[in-house]
């Protein structure tokens, strides 16, 4: 398996899902917060946009599952990831790529297996009832025994 991302080639999300670099859209701006003298001159904040709903490189079954699971994060079918944690644009690009791959990988994962209902074992039921009776007996014994209040 190749590296998660190679700028010239694209992004490997999972087996069978590779997003070519031509489908990824980048924009850069100035990062907020502290950063020293270079903060006002460097466009280190990165925004990575991927048109998930219309991507031909994502198989339909994965695309439908991901669109459904990421619905609250999509705008017009596009998923946008912003990164500005690092001072260098290159590190922020890597961070955005990693977050996009993780978000898509989690959204494309198969649904969890359905839980099969089971009933408690006989010994567990008997133990529960025995403990309830013992608790009830403890409470009954706390009651007033001489008839006065």
Question: What brief labels describe this structure?
Answer:
149 residues, alpha+beta, Double Stranded RNA Binding Domain, four-stranded antiparallel beta sheet, three-stranded antiparallel beta sheet, 3 helices, 7 strands
What does this structure look like?
The chain has 149 residues and is of the alpha+beta class. It has a domain at 5-108: Double Stranded RNA Binding Domain. The protein has three helices and seven strands, in the order βββββαββαα. The chain has a four-stranded antiparallel beta sheet. α1 (60-69) crosses α2.
- What class, by secondary structure content? alpha+beta
Main β-sheet, spatial strand arrangement: 4-5-7-6
Report the total helices.
Answer: 3
Fraction of residues in β-strands? 15-25%
Percent of residues in helices comes to 25-40%
Give start-end ranges of low-pLDDT stretches. Answer: 1-6
Number of strands: 7
Mean pLDDT: 81
Order of helices and strands: EEEEEHEEHH
Head-to-tail CA distance between termini: 80 Å
Q: Mind telling me the C-alpha Rg?
A: 28 Å
The name of the CATH architecture of the domain at 5-108 is: 2-Layer Sandwich
Q: Tell me, what is the CATH class of the domain at 5-108?
A: Alpha Beta
The oligomerization state is: single chain
Structural shape: elongated
CATH topology of the domain at 5-108: Double Stranded RNA Binding Domain
């Amino acid at each position: 398996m190749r590296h998660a991302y190679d700028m010239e080639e694209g992004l490997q999300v999972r087996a069978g899902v590779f997003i070519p670099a031509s489908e990824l859209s980048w924009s850069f701006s100035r990062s907020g917060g502290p950063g020293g003298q270079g903060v006002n001159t460097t466009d280190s904040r990165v925004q990575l946009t991927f048109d998930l709903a219309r991507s031909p490189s994502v198989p339909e079954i994965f695309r439908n599952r991901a669109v459904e699971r990421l619905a609250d994060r999509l705008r017009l079918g596009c998923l946008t990831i912003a990164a500005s944690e690092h001072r260098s644009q290159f590190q922020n690009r890597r961070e955005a790529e990693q977050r996009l791959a993780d978000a898509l990988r989690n959204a494309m994962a198969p649904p969890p297996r359905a839980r099969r209902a089971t009933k408690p074992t006989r010994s567990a039921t008997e133990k529960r009832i025995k403990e309830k009776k013992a608790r009830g007996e403890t409470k009954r014994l706390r009651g007033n025994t001489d008839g006065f209040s």
